[in-house]
Specification:
43% of the residues are buried. The protein is α/β, with parallel strands linked by helices. The protein has 2 domains: 280 residues, 3-Layer(aba) Sandwich (Aminopeptidase); 132 residues, Aminopeptidase i, Domain 2. The strands form 4 sheets. A 9-stranded mixed sheet has the order 1-2-3-13-4-14-18-16-17, with helices on both faces. Strands 11-12-20-19-15 form a 5-stranded mixed sheet. The chain has 11 helices and 20 strands. Strand 11 and strand 12 form a beta hairpin.
């Protein structure tokens, strides 16, 4: 019998998303990658420390602390007359972060100490080719303000979370792979060099990579990432896998929808179109740059003022005429664990975006915003699905409820179906990403 072999397709329609994720192994890189795309389309950066001068149909973006970004295209009319159409998502993903004094010696080995960020599935980090990406504060002079933040990404694998052989952990297949976060999560780095102080080993790695002296390394925020690149899989290449689908897939959809109008020379809309990509969602969003902070509200206020909405009532009118979509990934039905789902609300991969509903307001969706999105999908010929968590399982949350509460803007929570959320290697459907792009693009266009 002749064997049929299907070869990978490098021209897969999902490749732009995989490239975006592979270039963005940390929230700081995700914003940098987003800025590169915006600048190609003529977006102008605004500085929060300076006055803003805005024009109708202008393209602008604001970055707060390198890992949250808001980009927008002003409308033909003032926001008080036409409102905002906003798509929100988040740039961070659960994982491991490097401690300030990470180096420890165990026998002849150097290890890197880590903190858990958010709620990752820790077992999936074992025996992977791991490396570092993030930002480093580098001293540039003698004054207290003489330092700069530099992005860093090691392309090669640097370390591993080495698993025990089953011979020394006989019950692992019955009890599951577990790690004590203090004693068993440190990452195996290298054999300790003899006759030297190894406490600054990571400092030296960073200094070498940044071409500075070791004394210039002040502080860092470094994420552990998997060096394996994204890939498509399945008999018909209908699925894809990568790290950080939650929630860089939604960031990419939002960015692509905003840029599509520019590509089509469809710049003129009555309302202001905006994407807001926040850091810190995975740890509660309560920070200066998180969705529970002031970034979105500050930006809306300043945009309105710069476009002539200086009266307090004008600001409130603009919000009353606005809508927001919170785009975060959704739990797809897993056939091996059917008892974890509500049978009447099974979400299927490659069957369309998901409207996420929770009447205790863990999601911000309500009847009116659900109806709005249903109409958008129907008009764009995009299928959609409804998700409700099992009533006896705790429901997660998103940036939607807190953004709606902060601004008073009606909001809806949606997301694409995915498997293995919070694994270091997540997967989803190629067709769903296309559907999401169509729906979000339609949301940013006048009916």
């Amino acid at each position: 019998m002749k064997q049929t072999v299907t070869t990978p397709n490098n021209d897969s329609p999902i490749q732009p998303l995989l490239n975006y994720i592979d270039a963005s192994p940390s929230p700081w890189h995700a914003v940098s990658t987003t800025v590169e795309a915006l600048q190609l389309y003529g977006f102008e950066e605004l500085d929060e420390q300076n006055p803003w001068q805005l024009e109708n149909n202008g393209k602008y973006y604001i970055v707060r602390d390198q890992s949250s970004i808001i980009a927008f295209i002003t409308g033909d009319k003032a926001p008080s007359e036409s409102g905002y159409r906003i798509i929100g998502a988040h740039t961070d993903s659960p994982g491991l972060r490097i401690k300030p004094r990470p180096i420890s010696e165990s026998g002849p080995w150097l290890r890197l100490g880590v903190e858990v960020y958010g709620g990752p599935t820790l077992a999936t980090f074992a025996d992977r080719d791991l490396s570092l990406a993030g930002r480093v504060s580098v001293k540039t002079g003698k004054k207290s303000t003489d330092f700069e933040s530099r992005l860093i990404k090691f392309d090669q694998s640097l370390f591993r979370l080495v698993n025990l052989p089953i011979h020394l952990n006989r019950g692992v297949n019955d009890t599951g792979l577990k790690f004590n976060q203090q004693t068993e999560l440190p990452l195996t780095l290298t054999l300790a060099p003899e006759n030297q102080d190894n406490s600054k080993y990571l400092h030296q790695l960073l200094a070498n990579a940044l071409s500075v002296k070791i004394e210039a390394i002040l502080s860092w925020e470094l994420a552990v990432y998997d060096t394996q690149k994204g890939a498509v899989f399945g008999p018909n290449q209908e699925f894809y896998a990568n790290s950080q689908l939650d929630n860089l897939a939604s960031c990419h959809s939002a960015l692509s929808a905003l840029l599509e109008g520019v590509e089509e020379n469809n710049d003129h809309q009555p309302f202001t179109r905006m994407i807001a990509l926040f850091d810190h969602e995975e740890v509660g969003s309560r920070s200066a740059k998180g969705a529970d902070g002031s970034f979105l509200e500050d930006s809306i206020t300043r945009i309105g003022q710069a476009l002539g909405d200086v009266a307090p009532q004008a600001q409130l009118r603009s919000r009353a005429k606005s809508f927001m979509i919170s785009a975060d990934m959704a739990h797809a039905f897993h056939p091996n664990y059917a008892d974890k789902y509500d049978n009447e609300h099974l979400v299927i991969v490659n069957a369309g975006p998901v409207i996420k509903i929770n009447r205790s307001q863990r999601y911000s969706s309500h009847a009116q915003t659900e109806a709005l999105f249903m109409n958008i999908c129907q008009n764009a010929q995009v299928p959609y699905q409804l998700f409700v968590n099992r009533s006896d399982l705790a429901c997660g949350s998103t940036i939607g409820p807190m953004s709606a509460a902060k601004t008073g803007i009606p909001s809806l929570d949606i997301g694409n179906p995915m498997w293995a959320m919070h694994s270091i290697r997540e997967s989803a459907g190629v067709l769903d990403h296309h559907y999401m792009h169509q729906a979000l693009s339609a949301f940013l266009k006048k009916d």
